[in-house]
Amino acid sequence: MNELRLTAPISWLDGIDIKTGKIIQQDHPQRGESLAGRIVYVPHSIGSTVGAYTFFALKKYKTAPIKIVLEEPDSITISAELAGISVELKGAKEIKLENRDIREEFRRYLEKEASISEAEGFVRIHSVHISGVSYATIGDTGKEWLKNMENEIKFKVAATTNPLGMDLYRWKEMGIPENFAREQMNIVESLIKMGAIPSFTCTPYLAGNLPHYGEHISWGESSAVSFINSIIGARSNREGGAKTIIAAATGYTPLYGRHLDRNRKPTIAVEVEGDLNRLVDYYALGYFIGKEYPNSVPLFKGLKKLYIPELKALAAAGAASGSIEIFHIPKITPNLFKRPSKSIRVNLKDLKATLDELSTFSGGSDLVVIGCPHLSLDEFKRIVSLINGRIATIRFWLYTSRAILSQIERSGLIHLIKSFGAKVWADTCMVVSPLEDMGIRKVTTNSTKAAKYLKTLRGMDVEVLGLEEIIERYSIPA
User: Fold this and answer.
1) What are phi and psi of 310, to 5 degrees?
2) How far from chain centre, in Å, is Cα 90?
3) Which of 142, 169, 256, 462 could crosslink 117 through cysteines, CB 3.0-4.6 Å?
4) How far apart are CA 383 and CA 370, in angstroms?
5) Is the link from the previous residue into 177 a cis peptide, with omega within 30 of 0?
6) What percent of the chain has pLDDT over 90?
């Protein structure tokens, strides 16, 4: 029997060549091996929830595995079932969803997910956040699946949406190719027909979709899942992009993983040595822990004066390099649990090494991109304080939600940003827009999440610096 055992987690979004089925994930022990036509044993997935759409592409190119056997429950990998790829977990017992009003194929999928995940039944959810919205990441196969669904279902719960591959209203100004824009609008139309809220942001908790402590929800977008589990105390697993459609259409999700108290307890204490004075240090810390301890629940010790930007950075980075869905910080996060027995130390040298490893050049960038995750109002205020009296020497692109954009427009901050020479885009993100088709090759950012995916998805050279360093390097006094 043709089997392949993966000895490390896989990132389905950027770790597989869909046309060959080969593993291309950097540093993966089985890099170069093909999944095509094999029974593949997988520990669990890491990285983006949009990876769920990769299974549709693998089926299209006939490079899919014939079966995936999971070592532990993983919603993103279980989404392979929706593409017709069998997923199993040894010893799984059948679990039934008694609500017969749910469309049969969706009920069967939820029952399969519950059985594979050894769930304690099902729970009604209060909201959904849909990942896998950009044409750049889900491609034609994802677009076609959504098209097939658009007239078949209507969402039963509030469902916000992740960023598109372009600014919905100013895509021509961005330089987006017309063919890309046309296909992207087809995806938007499908989602709206199903009942999605066109928020187009990776920070829905700053744009109207803010769950309560203890609420059960079903969210894609790994950074948002980590944030609401950790900072708000809501409950969600990292849901595959296609699964979020099923959850919105049914109002249910299986009760397992981070929905349960026993799986939210810290598993490792992280003693942070030295003062983290820059936002980029928090991006580096999250990325370091996610890479070294991908499925952990960290308890961060020694962190002080954290606000929304730092917490967003930790959540995004740990979910990008690993699969961290929840973390704890004493006196900051609301989830109270005992200190774990395992402990590690992380110092500023470790964080610098992380940033150096992600950077592939120094100086001479084509474009600065800030806002992964989307910028908050406080972050815009910080940026304005740094750029005051300066002029950009290269393109500066800032990314946010349309909800925050309206706030900076009303407050007048937008005029100071424009005077500097920067542009603010809504609805989109540098990671999921086709920069490679817009003549851009070298990109500078302060986000380790952006750095990872700009390299692996967009094929960019990347420079990772602190915001202050970026502005100093790529602007001059007015």
Assistant:
1) -65, -40
2) 28
3) 256
4) 10
5) no
6) 93
Q: Is the separation of the CB atoms in 187 and 133 below 8 Å?
A: yes
Average pLDDT over all residues of the chain: 95
d(CA 90, CA 72): 9
d(CA 313, CA 348): 16
Are the CB atoms for 317 and 374 separated by under 8 Å?
Answer: no
Nearest-angstrom CA–CA distance, 121 and 111: 9
Could you tell me which CATH number the domain at 359-477 has?
Answer: 3.30.499.10
Which residue shows structure tokens 């502005």?
471
Query: 235-276 pLDDT, tens per residue?
Result: 999 999 999 999 999 999 999 999 999 999 999 999 999 999
Closest CA to 327 of 339, 315, 344: 315
Give the single-character DSSP code of 79.
Answer: G
C-alpha span between 277 and 308 (Å, rounded): 15
Q: How far apart are CA 400 and CA 203, in angstroms?
A: 9
- Pick the closest to residue 272 from 301, 296, 297, 293 (CA basis): 301
Residues in the chain: 478
Token pair belonging to 213? 């402590």
Residue 406 host element (H or E): helix 402-411
Residue 360 CB neighbour total at 10 angstroms = 15
- Residue 242 carries which DSSP code? H
Per-domain residue ranges of the chain: 1-264, 266-356, 359-477
337 with 58: CB under 8 angstroms? no
CA distance 52 to 224: 17
Per-residue pLDDT tens over the stretch 129-160: 999 999 999 999 999 999 999 999 999 999 99
What angle separates helix 279-292 from helix 308-321, to the nearest 10 degrees?
30
Q: How many CB atoms lie within 10 A of CB 125?
A: 24
Q: What tokens appear for 370 in the block? A: 């800030």
Provide the sign of the torsion angle of the four alpha carbons 417, 421, 422, 424, taken in this order.
positive
Assign 41 to helix, strand or coil.
strand
Inter-residue contact 370 to 420 (CB < 8 Å): no
Distance CA 221, CA 219 (A): 7
- Contacts of 101 by beta carbon, 8 Å cutoff, 6+ apart: none
The predicted model scores a pTM of 0.94
